[in-house]
UniProtKB/TrEMBL annotation:
Residues 37-260 form the Solute-binding protein family 3/N-terminal domain. This is Amino acid ABC transporter. Belongs to the bacterial solute-binding protein 3 family. It comes from Bradyrhizobium centrolobii. Pfam families: SBP_bac_3 (PF00497). Its main location: other. The keyword Transit peptide does not apply. CDD domains: PBP2_PheC. InterPro entries: PheC_PBP2, SBP_3_CS, Solute-binding_3/MltF_N. One of its GO terms (molecular function) is hydro-lyase activity.
Amino acid sequence: MLVRILSALAVVLLANFSAHAQQAAPSRLDEIIKRGTLRVGMTGDYMPFTFLDKTTQQFRGFDVDMAEALGKALGVKVEFVPTAWPNLMKDFEADQFDIAMGGVSVTLDRQKKGFFSTPIMREGKTPIARCADVGKYQTLADIDKKGTRVIVNPGGTNERFARANIKDAEINVFPDNTVIFDEIAKGHADLMMTDASETRYQQKQHSGVLCAVHPDKPFDFSEKAYWLQRDMALKAFVDQWLHISMEDGSYRKIYAAWFD
């Protein structure tokens, strides 16, 4: 009986000690507020979400404005940390930033390494091609034929989707995502499969030349969200901030400035 009592007491003491240790350890949210800076990882090559002006070294885009709004809600400054799609996972794991923003898609591989916020957008992969060729690329079977030139940016979900679905068509990896759509316009590639939001944006930027192919009915399902270092307090704050932003119209105002 005495052994049972002592064992039970030990369990209670250990649980109390663990709970106290967890309470005592500062959260990532606490660290950000104490530091006075939110470090935001961005690729800077994915309009309308994020673009880095190489001349001024200034970021602009939808998620740039959202990051500034998040920083204001936290009461801290925002520090943008340049990264690239092939290096995003490595930089995240190396704790180069607190949060990744800039059109980041939710994936299970990324979920293994951190938390995702409440999704901010629902979409999927769909083609963009020269307007005269839209009818030729309605399905994956239409696209995956010898002689078709599919262009992709390296290291992200676009390349992953293309390699998973294209076996006979030619896949060309183009390193500069900021001018990749010009390659289609010039006739150096036939199409690109990317997020529906990007095809709509690039259609506007190349009016009458490039056209989004059924962006309302993409080939797959995906969501965009903000990728957070694994901290429940930070995730709870970001989710609540997003909820308020979507309800009070501030999210819609920023969205309209870049997408409407």
